[in-house]
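Handout, page 2. Input:
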Amino acid sequence: MPAGLRVAALLLTPPRLWPYLLLGEYAYLAHIRYPLVETLGLPWVILASLFLLPLVALVVRVHAASMRSQQIYWLLSLAACSAILIAIVRLSTMHLLWPIPPEESLLSSLGRHVLGEYIGILTIAPLALLWLKRRDPPIGARALRIPSIASVLAVVALGSVSGFIPLELTSIKTSIQLTMVAPVIALTCMHGWRGAAVGVPLLNLAIHLTTPSTGLSGSFDPSTFKTQQVIAATGTGLLALGSRISHLYYEHLQKRSSDRAKALSLTRSAQMAGEMDLRARALDIRNLGDNFDQALSDMADWLRHSGHEELATSLLGTTVLHSRKFREQVSMVYPTSLEHVGLYLALQIGGISEAWSDTHRLTLRRLGGDPCCLSMGLQLATYRTLTEAVSLLIQNEAGQVEVRARCGCIQKTRGILVSVSLLDMGQNLSAGTVAQATKRLAGRAIVYGGTVQCRRNRIRILLVEDAPN
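Output:
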């Protein structure tokens, strides 16, 4: 277990604080080993306590570049290297510095120590890694919460049962301990390496707590050692399997995210292309209207010079009236004023404003923020979505309609929130209006990473985009 604590502490602590870890461990080991000075010698007490954490820190430092990866194969390599180095240093100092070296074979002792250190690291280090990567997106869905809890409880229950098995029934006890692997496998399949990072330590702790021990240095039980070998191999395999499952999941997630981003980008481009086509048509229609106005003005001048003053005045009055209506309709095809004065003023001075005024049912209030900080595509999408939402409420609902909007930037995201609501708070939107709003407005909102929500008497529209660097 101390080996696992060393690795976990080094993983959780920034390198600049590692000297404090070294001082803390050295002080602790000196405290517990000082009473052994007369028995095992002062050189062993000093040197055996000095090199363990630095060697593990070196191994962690070597694996630092791999820690950023979603795969955690590096944890198995780190655990194996740390276990081997700790065992070698520990046995070397024992055989070189103890007055009476251990009688056990060096290779046999090395194998047991490596296995013990390795299991200790796999018991604690995965939990530290789980904390380090707590902000990464999880694999398991909410639907897997109950099976996950059931798997954890199964491990605890089987471990408790094995603890009450008498020592004489060793085969039954071992079988129950090995059965605990099944729910850990289920956790790994459901949650990838995160499931293994919870299940493997839980499995190791359950076996450790239910295995009898004399508490004496060098105590050894062959059946327990065999079980530990199986558990070490199983833990390694589960962590490797969990890492592979997580890697495949993140690859699939990244591919889906990339495909979605590409589809949204293409849709935005298609929308802007359509808007530019409407812009060109609106400019052509406006030029055509200007030519008509000029021709009628020339005709009125000719009539005036010919002595038909009343006819000329009537023609000019009719021309002005129809020209204004014509320009209002053209501005509703494409709001060119939006390019010059921004979204809010385009809603108040464009043709759409005149159309809304004629209904005597719409009020623009609380238009907050500067819409000019938004991209032209986002402003156009907001314009189209907002006018569509107002049209829905005016056509399908009774009473006054109110429009509110606020735009701004938060961190690296900018956007606008629009609310189109009925002034009567007690009047809820009809089911037909809600269905049409969801169907007709959600397209542009989704393209710009936003949402459309229909609640009680209002339609709320959110459109967002990434802010430029």
